[in-house]
Amino acid sequence: MTKRASSHSHDPPKVIIIGLGLIGGSVALAIRASHHVHIIGIDIHEPSLQMAKSLDIIDEGHTSISTTVQDADLIVIATPVSKTMELLASLARHPLKVGMMITDVGSTKETVVTESERLFNEHEVTFIGGHPMAGSHKSGVQGSRPDLFENAFYILTPGKNVDTFAVERLKRWLIGTNARFIELEAEQHDLLAGSVSHLPHIVAASLVHQLIDLKQHHPVLSDLAAGGFRDITRIASANPIMWRDILVHNKHVLIPMMERWQADMQTVQNLIEEGDDDRLQQFFSEAKRHRDELPAKKKGAIPAFYDLFVDVPDHPGVISEVTGILADHDISITNIRIMETREDIMGVLRLSFRKEADRQRGLDCLEAEQFNTYISE
Ligand SMILES: NC(=O)C1=CN([C@@H]2O[C@H](COP(=O)(O)OP(=O)(O)OC[C@H]3O[C@@H](n4cnc5c(N)ncnc54)[C@H](O)[C@@H]3O)[C@@H](O)[C@H]2O)C=CC1
Ligand SMILES: O=C(O)C(=O)Cc1ccc(O)cc1
Questions:
Q1: CB 3.0 to 4.6 Å from 79: which of 19, 89, 189, 283, for a disulfide?
Q2: Which top-rank group of organisms is this from (predicted)?
Q3: H or E stretch covering 132
Protein backbone atom coordinates (compact mmCIF):
# COMPACT_ATOMS: atom_id res chain seq x y z
CA MET A 1 0.00 0.00 0.00
CA THR A 2 1.40 3.46 -0.82
CA LYS A 3 0.01 6.94 -0.31
CA ARG A 4 0.93 10.45 -1.36
CA ALA A 5 3.08 12.60 0.90
CA SER A 6 1.02 14.39 3.55
CA SER A 7 3.53 16.09 5.85
CA HIS A 8 4.20 19.83 5.49
CA SER A 9 7.01 20.67 3.12
CA HIS A 10 8.93 22.65 5.77
CA ASP A 11 8.95 19.74 8.23
CA PRO A 12 12.34 18.05 8.48
CA PRO A 13 12.49 14.63 6.82
CA LYS A 14 11.30 11.82 9.05
CA VAL A 15 13.62 8.89 9.71
CA ILE A 16 12.40 5.82 11.53
CA ILE A 17 14.82 3.40 13.15
CA ILE A 18 13.23 0.09 14.08
CA GLY A 19 15.35 -1.73 16.67
CA LEU A 20 17.29 0.68 18.82
CA GLY A 21 20.29 -1.41 19.73
CA LEU A 22 23.97 -0.92 19.11
CA ILE A 23 23.62 -0.70 15.33
CA GLY A 24 20.26 1.11 15.11
CA GLY A 25 21.47 3.69 17.63
CA SER A 26 24.78 4.19 15.82
CA VAL A 27 23.08 4.61 12.44
CA ALA A 28 20.67 7.13 14.01
CA LEU A 29 23.58 9.14 15.45
CA ALA A 30 25.40 9.09 12.11
CA ILE A 31 22.28 10.28 10.25
CA ARG A 32 21.72 13.01 12.81
CA ALA A 33 25.32 14.17 12.46
CA SER A 34 24.85 14.85 8.76
CA HIS A 35 21.16 15.76 8.30
CA HIS A 36 18.52 17.95 9.84
CA VAL A 37 15.95 15.23 10.57
CA HIS A 38 13.25 14.13 12.95
CA ILE A 39 14.17 10.65 14.20
CA ILE A 40 11.56 8.25 15.54
CA GLY A 41 12.77 5.15 17.32
CA ILE A 42 10.71 1.98 17.49
CA ASP A 43 11.64 -0.80 19.86
CA ILE A 44 9.66 -3.44 21.74
CA HIS A 45 11.92 -2.84 24.73
CA GLU A 46 10.71 0.36 26.38
CA PRO A 47 13.92 1.04 28.40
CA SER A 48 15.92 1.12 25.15
CA LEU A 49 13.64 3.90 23.90
CA GLN A 50 14.04 5.85 27.11
CA MET A 51 17.81 5.43 27.00
CA ALA A 52 17.90 6.50 23.32
CA LYS A 53 15.80 9.56 24.12
CA SER A 54 17.98 10.57 27.07
CA LEU A 55 21.12 10.16 24.92
CA ASP A 56 19.48 12.38 22.27
CA ILE A 57 19.68 9.60 19.69
CA ILE A 58 15.96 9.88 18.88
CA ASP A 59 13.36 12.63 19.07
CA GLU A 60 10.48 10.33 19.96
CA GLY A 61 9.99 6.65 20.67
CA HIS A 62 7.22 4.07 20.21
CA THR A 63 6.86 0.40 20.97
CA SER A 64 5.11 -0.51 17.70
CA ILE A 65 5.21 0.65 14.10
CA SER A 66 1.45 1.48 14.14
CA THR A 67 0.72 4.82 12.47
CA THR A 68 4.18 6.35 12.75
CA VAL A 69 5.55 4.81 9.55
CA GLN A 70 3.16 6.42 7.12
CA ASP A 71 5.03 9.74 6.86
CA ALA A 72 8.52 8.29 6.98
CA ASP A 73 11.06 9.27 4.33
CA LEU A 74 13.53 6.61 5.44
CA ILE A 75 13.06 3.48 7.53
CA VAL A 76 16.09 1.62 8.86
CA ILE A 77 15.39 -1.84 10.26
CA ALA A 78 18.05 -2.78 12.80
CA THR A 79 16.65 -5.86 14.53
CA PRO A 80 17.88 -9.47 14.47
CA VAL A 81 17.31 -10.87 10.98
CA SER A 82 14.25 -13.06 11.69
CA LYS A 83 12.47 -10.03 13.17
CA THR A 84 13.51 -8.00 10.13
CA MET A 85 11.65 -10.50 7.92
CA GLU A 86 8.51 -10.13 10.04
CA LEU A 87 8.81 -6.35 10.09
CA LEU A 88 9.13 -6.19 6.30
CA ALA A 89 5.86 -8.12 5.98
CA SER A 90 4.24 -5.83 8.49
CA LEU A 91 5.49 -2.66 6.73
CA ALA A 92 4.13 -3.91 3.42
CA ARG A 93 0.66 -3.94 5.01
CA HIS A 94 0.95 -0.30 6.11
CA PRO A 95 0.38 2.79 4.00
CA LEU A 96 3.81 4.22 3.12
CA LYS A 97 4.83 7.48 1.48
CA VAL A 98 5.49 7.34 -2.26
CA GLY A 99 9.21 7.40 -3.01
CA MET A 100 10.28 6.54 0.53
CA MET A 101 13.13 4.18 1.17
CA ILE A 102 13.60 1.19 3.44
CA THR A 103 16.94 -0.36 4.34
CA ASP A 104 18.20 -2.81 6.94
CA VAL A 105 21.53 -3.52 8.64
CA GLY A 106 21.29 -7.29 9.08
CA SER A 107 24.30 -9.57 8.84
CA THR A 108 22.70 -11.77 6.16
CA LYS A 109 21.18 -10.43 2.98
CA GLU A 110 19.70 -12.97 0.60
CA THR A 111 16.49 -13.91 2.43
CA VAL A 112 15.84 -10.27 3.31
CA VAL A 113 16.36 -8.98 -0.24
CA THR A 114 14.26 -11.78 -1.78
CA GLU A 115 11.44 -11.18 0.68
CA SER A 116 11.48 -7.42 0.11
CA GLU A 117 11.34 -7.91 -3.66
CA ARG A 118 8.27 -10.10 -3.23
CA LEU A 119 6.59 -7.78 -0.73
CA PHE A 120 7.27 -4.38 -2.29
CA ASN A 121 6.83 -5.42 -5.89
CA GLU A 122 3.64 -3.42 -6.24
CA HIS A 123 4.71 -0.52 -4.00
CA GLU A 124 6.27 2.78 -4.97
CA VAL A 125 8.92 2.36 -2.29
CA THR A 126 12.52 1.22 -2.58
CA PHE A 127 14.21 -1.40 -0.44
CA ILE A 128 18.00 -1.66 -0.41
CA GLY A 129 19.70 -4.20 1.84
CA GLY A 130 22.61 -2.93 3.91
CA HIS A 131 25.26 -4.39 6.18
CA PRO A 132 27.78 -2.24 8.00
CA MET A 133 30.74 -4.56 8.51
CA ALA A 134 31.72 -3.21 11.89
CA GLY A 135 30.27 -3.48 15.32
CA SER A 136 31.02 -5.14 18.57
CA HIS A 137 30.31 -8.16 20.72
CA LYS A 138 28.44 -5.73 22.97
CA SER A 139 24.82 -5.00 22.22
CA GLY A 140 22.36 -2.35 23.30
CA VAL A 141 21.73 1.29 22.48
CA GLN A 142 24.01 2.50 25.29
CA GLY A 143 27.02 1.40 23.24
CA SER A 144 25.97 3.43 20.15
CA ARG A 145 28.53 5.74 18.61
CA PRO A 146 28.26 8.05 15.60
CA ASP A 147 31.71 6.91 14.42
CA LEU A 148 31.16 3.16 14.86
CA PHE A 149 31.31 2.59 11.11
CA GLU A 150 34.07 5.06 10.29
CA ASN A 151 36.30 3.58 7.55
CA ALA A 152 34.46 0.27 7.78
CA PHE A 153 33.02 -1.43 4.72
CA TYR A 154 29.29 -0.85 4.46
CA ILE A 155 27.86 -3.34 1.99
CA LEU A 156 24.76 -2.42 0.03
CA THR A 157 22.79 -5.11 -1.79
CA PRO A 158 20.28 -3.40 -4.09
CA GLY A 159 17.89 -5.89 -5.67
CA LYS A 160 17.46 -6.15 -9.43
CA ASN A 161 14.71 -3.49 -9.59
CA VAL A 162 16.68 -0.79 -7.81
CA ASP A 163 18.26 1.98 -9.90
CA THR A 164 21.61 3.66 -9.25
CA PHE A 165 19.95 6.95 -8.22
CA ALA A 166 18.24 5.18 -5.34
CA VAL A 167 21.55 3.67 -4.23
CA GLU A 168 23.13 7.15 -4.30
CA ARG A 169 20.18 8.50 -2.32
CA LEU A 170 20.74 5.87 0.38
CA LYS A 171 24.47 6.61 0.46
CA ARG A 172 23.64 10.28 1.00
CA TRP A 173 21.39 9.35 3.90
CA LEU A 174 24.24 7.32 5.41
CA ILE A 175 27.08 9.72 4.59
CA GLY A 176 27.57 10.56 8.28
CA THR A 177 28.75 7.00 8.93
CA ASN A 178 31.96 7.85 7.01
CA ALA A 179 31.88 4.23 5.92
CA ARG A 180 33.22 2.81 2.65
CA PHE A 181 30.24 1.72 0.62
CA ILE A 182 30.47 -1.24 -1.69
CA GLU A 183 27.72 -2.94 -3.66
CA LEU A 184 27.42 -6.70 -3.80
CA GLU A 185 24.83 -9.21 -4.90
CA ALA A 186 23.04 -10.51 -1.81
CA GLU A 187 24.17 -14.05 -2.59
CA GLN A 188 27.82 -13.03 -2.84
CA HIS A 189 27.51 -11.04 0.37
CA ASP A 190 26.26 -14.07 2.27
CA LEU A 191 29.06 -16.26 0.97
CA LEU A 192 31.76 -13.76 1.93
CA ALA A 193 30.23 -12.81 5.29
CA GLY A 194 29.82 -16.53 6.00
CA SER A 195 33.54 -16.99 5.55
CA VAL A 196 34.96 -13.96 7.41
CA SER A 197 32.32 -13.54 10.07
CA HIS A 198 29.73 -16.30 10.53
CA LEU A 199 31.92 -19.42 10.44
CA PRO A 200 34.55 -17.81 12.71
CA HIS A 201 31.75 -17.01 15.14
CA ILE A 202 30.67 -20.65 15.29
CA VAL A 203 34.28 -21.74 15.82
CA ALA A 204 34.77 -19.16 18.60
CA ALA A 205 31.64 -20.35 20.41
CA SER A 206 32.73 -23.97 20.02
CA LEU A 207 36.16 -23.25 21.53
CA VAL A 208 34.42 -21.76 24.54
CA HIS A 209 32.27 -24.90 24.81
CA GLN A 210 35.43 -27.03 24.98
CA LEU A 211 36.66 -24.82 27.81
CA ILE A 212 33.39 -25.25 29.76
CA ASP A 213 33.80 -29.04 29.81
CA LEU A 214 37.46 -29.06 30.82
CA LYS A 215 36.98 -26.32 33.42
CA GLN A 216 34.80 -28.59 35.52
CA HIS A 217 37.83 -30.76 36.30
CA HIS A 218 40.46 -28.02 36.15
CA PRO A 219 39.17 -24.79 37.73
CA VAL A 220 42.51 -23.04 37.12
CA LEU A 221 41.77 -23.17 33.38
CA SER A 222 39.84 -19.88 33.42
CA ASP A 223 42.94 -18.06 34.63
CA LEU A 224 45.06 -19.66 31.93
CA ALA A 225 42.56 -18.78 29.20
CA ALA A 226 43.75 -15.18 29.04
CA GLY A 227 45.69 -13.72 26.10
CA GLY A 228 45.25 -15.59 22.82
CA PHE A 229 42.19 -17.52 23.92
CA ARG A 230 40.41 -14.36 24.94
CA ASP A 231 41.32 -12.70 21.62
CA ILE A 232 40.11 -15.55 19.44
CA THR A 233 36.88 -16.04 21.42
CA ARG A 234 35.94 -12.37 22.05
CA ILE A 235 33.12 -12.52 19.53
CA ALA A 236 31.51 -15.43 21.41
CA SER A 237 30.28 -12.81 23.92
CA ALA A 238 27.90 -11.36 21.31
CA ASN A 239 24.09 -11.42 21.38
CA PRO A 240 22.91 -15.09 21.06
CA ILE A 241 19.57 -14.19 19.44
CA MET A 242 21.28 -12.18 16.73
CA TRP A 243 23.69 -15.06 16.01
CA ARG A 244 20.97 -17.70 16.06
CA ASP A 245 19.19 -15.71 13.35
CA ILE A 246 22.36 -15.27 11.29
CA LEU A 247 22.92 -19.05 11.21
CA VAL A 248 19.28 -19.71 10.34
CA HIS A 249 19.39 -17.22 7.46
CA ASN A 250 22.75 -18.27 6.08
CA LYS A 251 22.21 -21.99 6.44
CA HIS A 252 22.90 -22.97 2.82
CA VAL A 253 26.27 -21.17 2.89
CA LEU A 254 27.30 -22.31 6.36
CA ILE A 255 26.54 -26.01 6.05
CA PRO A 256 29.09 -26.63 3.23
CA MET A 257 31.59 -24.36 5.01
CA MET A 258 31.24 -26.38 8.19
CA GLU A 259 31.73 -29.60 6.21
CA ARG A 260 34.91 -28.14 4.76
CA TRP A 261 36.01 -27.05 8.23
CA GLN A 262 35.45 -30.54 9.63
CA ALA A 263 37.38 -32.05 6.72
CA ASP A 264 40.27 -29.66 7.46
CA MET A 265 40.23 -30.70 11.11
CA GLN A 266 40.29 -34.34 10.02
CA THR A 267 43.29 -33.64 7.79
CA VAL A 268 45.20 -32.03 10.66
CA GLN A 269 44.25 -34.92 12.93
CA ASN A 270 45.56 -37.41 10.35
CA LEU A 271 48.83 -35.49 10.03
CA ILE A 272 49.30 -35.59 13.79
CA GLU A 273 48.46 -39.29 13.95
CA GLU A 274 50.79 -40.09 11.05
CA GLY A 275 53.52 -37.91 12.54
CA ASP A 276 53.83 -35.99 9.26
CA ASP A 277 55.88 -33.10 10.66
CA ASP A 278 56.58 -31.51 7.29
CA ARG A 279 52.96 -31.20 6.26
CA LEU A 280 51.95 -30.04 9.73
CA GLN A 281 54.48 -27.24 9.48
CA GLN A 282 53.22 -26.48 5.98
CA PHE A 283 49.66 -26.22 7.34
CA PHE A 284 50.77 -23.46 9.70
CA SER A 285 53.18 -21.69 7.37
CA GLU A 286 50.57 -21.43 4.62
CA ALA A 287 48.04 -19.99 7.07
CA LYS A 288 50.66 -17.59 8.44
CA ARG A 289 51.61 -16.36 4.98
CA HIS A 290 47.99 -15.56 4.09
CA ARG A 291 47.19 -14.10 7.54
CA ASP A 292 50.26 -11.85 7.35
CA GLU A 293 49.09 -10.57 3.97
CA LEU A 294 45.70 -9.40 5.28
CA PRO A 295 45.34 -5.61 5.31
CA ALA A 296 46.24 -4.38 8.78
CA LYS A 297 44.60 -0.98 9.08
CA LYS A 298 41.31 -1.55 7.35
CA LYS A 299 38.23 -2.16 9.41
CA GLY A 300 36.41 -5.34 8.55
CA ALA A 301 34.28 -7.79 10.45
CA ILE A 302 37.20 -7.88 12.86
CA PRO A 303 37.70 -4.29 13.97
CA ALA A 304 41.16 -2.85 13.50
CA PHE A 305 42.64 -0.67 16.17
CA TYR A 306 45.13 2.07 15.62
CA ASP A 307 48.16 1.09 17.64
CA LEU A 308 51.02 3.25 18.77
CA PHE A 309 54.14 1.80 20.36
CA VAL A 310 56.01 3.80 22.97
CA ASP A 311 59.45 3.04 24.39
CA VAL A 312 59.31 3.47 28.12
CA PRO A 313 62.05 3.27 30.72
CA ASP A 314 61.35 0.52 33.22
CA HIS A 315 60.57 2.61 36.26
CA PRO A 316 57.44 2.83 38.43
CA GLY A 317 54.94 5.48 37.43
CA VAL A 318 55.88 5.64 33.76
CA ILE A 319 52.58 4.15 32.61
CA SER A 320 50.55 6.72 34.49
CA GLU A 321 52.84 9.39 33.08
CA VAL A 322 52.01 8.28 29.51
CA THR A 323 48.27 7.93 30.15
CA GLY A 324 48.31 11.26 32.02
CA ILE A 325 49.77 13.05 28.98
CA LEU A 326 47.04 11.56 26.78
CA ALA A 327 44.32 12.46 29.30
CA ASP A 328 45.63 16.04 29.50
CA HIS A 329 45.08 16.27 25.73
CA ASP A 330 41.67 14.62 25.97
CA ILE A 331 42.72 11.62 23.86
CA SER A 332 40.97 8.31 24.62
CA ILE A 333 42.68 4.97 24.33
CA THR A 334 40.82 1.69 23.95
CA ASN A 335 43.59 -0.57 25.22
CA ILE A 336 47.03 -0.50 26.76
CA ARG A 337 49.48 -3.37 26.98
CA ILE A 338 53.08 -3.80 28.12
CA MET A 339 54.59 -5.62 25.18
CA GLU A 340 58.01 -6.67 26.41
CA THR A 341 60.82 -5.63 28.66
CA ARG A 342 64.04 -5.49 26.79
CA GLU A 343 67.46 -6.35 28.14
CA ASP A 344 68.46 -2.69 28.02
CA ILE A 345 65.76 -2.08 30.62
CA MET A 346 63.45 -0.31 28.16
CA GLY A 347 59.89 -1.58 27.90
CA VAL A 348 57.39 -1.10 25.08
CA LEU A 349 53.83 0.05 25.65
CA ARG A 350 51.23 -0.66 23.02
CA LEU A 351 48.46 1.94 23.06
CA SER A 352 45.34 1.31 20.98
CA PHE A 353 43.21 4.17 19.68
CA ARG A 354 39.84 4.06 18.02
CA LYS A 355 40.70 6.50 15.26
CA GLU A 356 43.73 7.30 13.15
CA ALA A 357 43.38 10.98 14.13
CA ASP A 358 43.57 10.07 17.84
CA ARG A 359 46.69 8.00 17.26
CA GLN A 360 48.35 10.88 15.42
CA ARG A 361 47.51 13.32 18.21
CA GLY A 362 48.78 10.79 20.78
CA LEU A 363 52.03 10.43 18.84
CA ASP A 364 52.49 14.20 18.60
CA CYS A 365 51.97 14.92 22.27
CA LEU A 366 54.09 11.97 23.49
CA GLU A 367 56.94 12.93 21.14
CA ALA A 368 56.67 16.50 22.45
CA GLU A 369 57.27 15.04 25.93
CA GLN A 370 60.43 13.28 24.64
CA PHE A 371 58.94 9.79 24.36
CA ASN A 372 60.15 7.66 21.47
CA THR A 373 57.08 6.40 19.58
CA TYR A 374 56.56 4.35 16.47
CA ILE A 375 53.82 2.78 14.41
CA SER A 376 54.16 -0.79 13.22
CA GLU A 377 51.72 -2.29 10.73
N1 LIG B 1 26.33 -6.18 16.66
C2 LIG B 1 27.07 -6.03 15.60
O3 LIG B 1 28.28 -5.93 15.71
C4 LIG B 1 26.45 -5.98 14.25
C5 LIG B 1 25.13 -6.34 14.05
N6 LIG B 1 24.58 -6.28 12.80
C7 LIG B 1 23.17 -6.60 12.61
O8 LIG B 1 22.43 -5.54 13.15
C9 LIG B 1 21.20 -5.99 13.67
C10 LIG B 1 21.03 -5.46 15.09
O11 LIG B 1 22.11 -5.87 15.88
P12 LIG B 1 22.51 -5.11 17.23
O13 LIG B 1 22.22 -3.68 17.12
O14 LIG B 1 23.86 -5.56 17.57
O15 LIG B 1 21.49 -5.79 18.24
P16 LIG B 1 20.96 -5.23 19.64
O17 LIG B 1 20.58 -6.43 20.42
O18 LIG B 1 21.92 -4.26 20.22
O19 LIG B 1 19.65 -4.43 19.20
C20 LIG B 1 18.52 -5.01 18.62
C21 LIG B 1 17.32 -4.20 19.08
O22 LIG B 1 16.17 -4.65 18.35
C23 LIG B 1 15.07 -4.62 19.24
N24 LIG B 1 14.00 -5.46 18.71
C25 LIG B 1 13.93 -6.81 18.65
N26 LIG B 1 12.80 -7.19 18.06
C27 LIG B 1 12.13 -6.07 17.72
C28 LIG B 1 10.90 -5.80 17.07
N29 LIG B 1 10.10 -6.78 16.64
N30 LIG B 1 10.52 -4.52 16.89
C31 LIG B 1 11.32 -3.51 17.31
N32 LIG B 1 12.49 -3.70 17.93
C33 LIG B 1 12.88 -4.96 18.13
C34 LIG B 1 15.64 -5.09 20.56
O35 LIG B 1 14.83 -4.74 21.65
C36 LIG B 1 17.00 -4.38 20.56
O37 LIG B 1 16.91 -3.11 21.19
C38 LIG B 1 21.21 -7.51 13.56
O39 LIG B 1 20.46 -7.88 12.43
C40 LIG B 1 22.68 -7.85 13.32
O41 LIG B 1 22.80 -9.01 12.52
C42 LIG B 1 25.28 -5.80 11.72
C43 LIG B 1 26.58 -5.41 11.87
C44 LIG B 1 27.29 -5.49 13.13
O1 LIG C 1 32.86 -7.64 17.14
C2 LIG C 1 33.29 -7.99 16.04
O3 LIG C 1 34.48 -8.18 15.78
C4 LIG C 1 32.37 -8.23 14.92
O5 LIG C 1 32.70 -8.96 14.03
C6 LIG C 1 31.08 -7.49 14.95
C7 LIG C 1 30.17 -7.84 13.84
C8 LIG C 1 29.13 -8.71 14.08
C9 LIG C 1 28.24 -9.00 13.08
C10 LIG C 1 28.41 -8.43 11.85
O11 LIG C 1 27.53 -8.74 10.88
C12 LIG C 1 29.43 -7.56 11.58
C13 LIG C 1 30.33 -7.26 12.59
A1: 19
A2: Bacteria
A3: strand 126-132
Q: Please indicate, yes or no, whether residues 311 and 280 belong to a single structural domain of this protein.
A: no
Is 105 touching ligand 1 by the criterion CB < 6 Å?
Answer: yes
pTM of the predicted structure, to 2 decimals? 0.82
Q: Note the pLDDT tens digit of each residue in 332-363.
A: 998 888 775 444 456 788 898 888 889 999 99
ipTM above 0.85, yes or no: yes
Helix ranges (DSSP H) in 275-355: 277-293, 318-328
The CATH number of the domain where 329 resides is what?
Answer: 3.30.2130.10
Same domain flag for 204 and 180: no
Residue to probe by mutation, ligand 1, list 66, 239, 242, 248, most atoms within 8 Å of CB: 242
Q: Is 97 helix (H, G, I), strand (E, B) or coil?
A: strand
Domain end (from 149, 184, 219): 184
Q: Decide if 259 is inside a domain.
A: yes
Residue nearest to atom 7 of ligand 2 (CA): 135
E strands, 165-317, in order: 180-183, 306-313
